[in-house]
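One chain is below:
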Amino acid sequence: MTQSNNSPVGARSPAKPRTTKKNDLTTQAQGGYDGSACQHIWSSPAWYAYQVGQYLRSSGRTAPRDVRMGRGNRIHANDLLFKFTHQDGQGISFERIQ
């Protein structure tokens, strides 16, 4: 049985190529780097990415690229690994660990 376009019934069309990685947070980090208002829920991966973008800007680093969450309290950005810690009433701090 075939459809009018000569493809088998139930056949899937070819998948579109993905332009970004599945868990890419670079757009959110770029927002923090550019200084736009944070629209993300506190402590969500998008919020941490936004904070990393702000950190990269304030520390004089290049714009964020390939930003993604790591395990636990770590986030990858610009081929670096950062660890973040919550400080009582002080927000968060970032430490470059790799």
User: Anything to note?
Assistant: The chain has a mean pLDDT of 81. The longest strand covers residues 80-87.
